[in-house]
């Protein structure tokens, strides 16, 4: 397989990985500038980019966004198993709510020669592989949330010490408005975006996108991709 074919076949992943890295780099530069402004206002020395990238201030800003994104996708993946939305391509067809049959999912005796090996098994391998997407998304969410809470506590205590206030423990930080303000402001925006995507795709179209129904599909068509 040629390099051009490899790049073409993986274009969607590569494009969004590139956008992610550019956005992360921009966040690092802007965050450093803001951090050093605060340092100057407090009469403290500026720090370098390398110091900022390893600081709790940068880590908490990154991880608080990561955990909300992976929570969004985790809940969306699980919700679309059991709930449907008439007219949305983000939904399964009406009447198909639930885990579906082995034949529908092409597992165990209904698997084909091209099916992943664990989908042809029964027992714990099939149980794990059948939920592997939500398990991985959930694990990343939990780890990101944990990282956010730890780095957030460190950043909060650094601010406390600059203000000559007593630091707090990690458990105490979890009960503070600072932690939940950071968390909930991200959650609400993610859930709003999902609700809008589901609802808007009922009536609006994007020609050629699998996230949209075909342009000429009726509004009530459900689970149909363009």
Q: Can you walk me through this structure?
A:
The chain is elongated. The protein is 63% helix and 0% strand. By secondary structure, it is mainly alpha-helical.
**Intertermini distance:** 28 Å
Binned strand content:
under 5%
Overall 3D geometry?
A: elongated
Mean pLDDT: 94
Please work out how many helical segments DSSP would assign. Answer: 9
Q: Structural class of the secondary structure composition? A: mainly alpha
Low-confidence residue ranges: none
Largest sheet: none
DSSP strand count: 0
- Helix fraction, binned, reads 55-70%
Order of helices and strands: HHHHHHHHH
Radius of gyration: 23 Å
Task: Give the secondary structure arrangement, pairings included.
Layout: H1 3-9, H2 11-41, H3 49-53, H4 56-82, H5 102-105, H6 124-129, H7 132-162, H8 170-174, H9 177-203
Helix pairs in contact: 4-7, 4-9
In short:
Helices cover 63% and strands 0% of the residues. The chain is mainly α and 226 residues long.
Name the descriptors:
226 residues; mainly alpha; 63% helix; 0% strand; elongated
